[in-house]
């Protein structure tokens, strides 16, 4: 049986976005409502998969190990609710172009194939237009986290993570 999934951007969705790059555990701040929202989605039967661009690796600012340490820390903070992590370490100006990099949809497509995901029952939650583009390319519904609904590029918009969670679990 196919599974339903919520694809999640990392920076600006699961943790507060910084002006620079987040690669140190000490700088990771998990906004209020995120862990609760993840738990509600998990209880509703969704796989939870992170899809994140990590161009700082290509730029030489941090390593893959730094990304994995941050992911591990987040998992510890949320009770290991996340099912998988996909990240793109490339940037076209620094190393190479990659279909993995959002707005490309290859990270989502790889997870869809690996986990036999039903795209008609799945979502992408992100805070940037490129997250919405990746989700739409993969054929999933999109929720744009933005305080301004007029700037939303998603199928739906939410002002915070718990509001996005309600949109996911209340949609048949």
Report on the architecture of this protein:
The protein has a single domain (4-170), classed as Rossmann fold, CATH 3.40.50.1000. The chain has helices at residues 34-43, 64-78, 106-115, 129-138, 161-170, and strands spanning 4-8, 46-53, 84-88, 123-126, 141-145, 156-158. By secondary structure, the protein is of the alpha/beta class. A 6-stranded parallel sheet has the order 3-2-1-4-5-6, sandwiched between helices. The chain is 32% helix and 17% strand. The mean pLDDT is 94. The protein is globular, with a radius of gyration of 15 Å. It is built from 5 helices and 6 strands, in the order βαβαβαβαββα.
The rounded distance between the terminal residues' Cα atoms is 17 Å
The biggest beta sheet reads: 6 strands, parallel
Radius of gyration based on Cα positions: 15 Å
CATH topology: Rossmann fold
- Helix- and strand-based class? alpha/beta
Low-confidence stretches: none
Number of strands: 6
Keywords:
six-stranded parallel beta sheet; single chain; 5 helices; alpha/beta; Rossmann fold; globular; 172 residues
Put the structure in a nutshell.
The protein has 172 residues and is α/β, with parallel strands linked by helices. It is built from five helices and six strands.
Which secondary structure elements does this structure contain, and how are they paired or packed?
Blueprint: E1 4-8, H1 34-43, E2 46-53, H2 64-78, E3 84-88, H3 106-115, E4 123-126, H4 129-138, E5 141-145, E6 156-158, H5 161-170
């Amino acid at each position: 049986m196919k599974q339903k999934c919520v694809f999640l951007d990392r920076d600006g969705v699961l943790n507060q976005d910084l002006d620079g790059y987040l690669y140190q555990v000490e700088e990771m701040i998990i906004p209020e409502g995120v862990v609760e929202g993840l738990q509600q989605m998990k209880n509703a039967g969704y796989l939870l998969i992170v899809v994140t661009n990590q161009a700082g690796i290509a730029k030489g600012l941090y390593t893959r190990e730094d990304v994995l340490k941050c992911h591990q820390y987040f998992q510890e903070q949320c009770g290991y609710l996340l099912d998988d992590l996909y990240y793109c370490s490339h940037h076209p100006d620094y190393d190479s172009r990659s279909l993995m990099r959002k707005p490309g949809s290859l990270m989502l497509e790889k997870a869809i194939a690996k986990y036999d995901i039903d795209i008609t029952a799945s979502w992408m939650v992100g805070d940037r237009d490129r997250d919405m583009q990746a989700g739409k390319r993969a054929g999933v519904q999109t929720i744009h986290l933005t305080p301004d609904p007029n700037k939303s590029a998603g199928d739906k918009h939410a002002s915070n993570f718990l509001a996005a969670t309600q949109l996911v679990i209340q949609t048949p």
